[in-house]
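User: Once you have settled down, look closely at the record that follows, taking as long as you need, and be ready to discuss the fold:
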Amino acid sequence: MFSKILIANRGEIALRIVRACEELGVPSVAVYSELDRDAPHVRRADEAYLLGPGPASESYLNVEKLLEVIERTGADAVHPGYGFLAENAAFAATLEQHGITFIGPSSSAIDAMGSKTKARELMAAAGVPIVPGTTEPVDSVEDARRIIAESIGFPVAVKAAGGGGGKGFRVALTQDELQDAFEGAAREGEKFFADATVYLERYLPDPRHVEVQILADKHGSVIYLGERDCSLQRRHQKLIEEAPAPAVEAIPGLRKKIGKIGTDAAAAVNYSGAGTIEGLLQDGEYFFLEMNTRVQVEHCVTEMVTGIDIVKEGIRVAAGEPLAYTQDDIVLRGHAIECRINAEDASKNFAPAPGKIGNYREPSGPGVRVDSGVGPGAEVSPMYDPMVAKLIVWDADREQATRRMIRALREYEIGDLKTLLPFHEAILQTPQWANAETCRDLIEDRAWLKQLAFAKAEKPADGEAPKVEQQYTVEVSGKRFEVKVIGAAATTGLQATSAPRAAPKRSERKASSSNGASGDTLTTPLQGTVFKVVVELGATVEEGTLICVIEAMKMENEITAHKSGIVTELPVTVGASVSVGDTLAVITAAS
């Protein structure tokens, strides 16, 4: 076993790895940016070292600084977690050259499977069914147009070769959308993975996203731990995951078939460690999509149904130990669900909502697990991923697990921060979820999402005394409740703080823009940086016309016109920082 492990990551996954190190009896080394100086993973690790300023390029992606910390601490292994450098073959190779173990696959395996184009080519050669598309990079929009016309057709997905986590994934439904999709995928590939290479796939409009968890050691053993369903997504980023996958259980023999695809793929590149084969399931047919050469965010649901600690197994096999399990040992029991608790406002089309956490209380009880990296007073920065925590539950079957998750969501308290708690509670009570559908119709329904809007704090009118808030305990029918009394002087209103959130009913109203707007003024619903301004001053626009793109929390957010009219004011410029409520444009009715 290793003498010391450096964890090249932050947040909940860093804390998860620290705990695994503690159970293995291995000292841990945390690294952090200036923004994460007081983060739980920093306090929990045996040692912690500052990497640099907040931007990831100056801290968590600073390989030279990481090497300095490795040398200073004497760490003989590095765990990359997920994101950042987790699928960076060059980083893994650099560690290998310095005699440091990268806890994950070899740099050659990352290079082979981390590149989506190489992985598709490898799988196609091995006879594994892949989504129709290219196995070679596409160099230009012109080449893309020709290839689409000859073989793929629309709709088409344009994907970054080194992408993952929804980054570098754009869809073109028509010819007119192709250039923006191509440029957007290439741009995000360069920004997040230092690789602007893109490829094309036929876009399947409503498939099940099913992935297989594999574990492999350095002695030639490869096993699969069942599958997960990750179909519930927005902007191609996962929101809810579950294991086992309901659609796979409904088809005899499918689990064994896709499990073999996973183990064959791993064996083809001499893989070791934890990894995931992602695929699309449509009309009973399974297509290989890509391989993630790292531990997944959603590994927790597989741990809950198999009883296997995937993080600890990954560390053990990196140290040269054989797998502690054979395929015959793997038995799936019960059902697990994971909800990603992101700092986002679902009512505003999942706009990032960074900020400071007030009161904080995690749910508990039988079958409930929370993987988090925050606490009271923690700051969720727009500079990083919006994830606050992962809430995972287990129960005997899917229906009971759903009820347990709803109970846990209602127990979860995250004060002063907009999160996806209301969204998760609402969607888990819909017929679509009960029927194991992808729920894509709900996630893309702006009118339904708008019903999840957070209550706005009341502001006193001019000359009015400011509102005061006091908390009391009241008893009704023998049951005590915590309530807030909000008002001015003797005039008060009661607001129960412990009442469960109600799921909104399905609305049939036409979806409207989720941007901030008041009269003619269009304001920004989020804090971030203006990446692109699409319209010009004096332009005539329709409701829903794209006005600008704001980058926040590693996502590009499209801001659309809230009404039809003429753009009479346009105070934003590319590169400018904006805060919630800032004016983006003024749109007045055409005369």
Observations:
- The domain at 516-588 is CATH 2.40.50.100 (OB fold (Dihydrolipoamide Acetyltransferase, E2P)).
- Confidence is low (pLDDT under 50) at residues 488-500, 507-514.
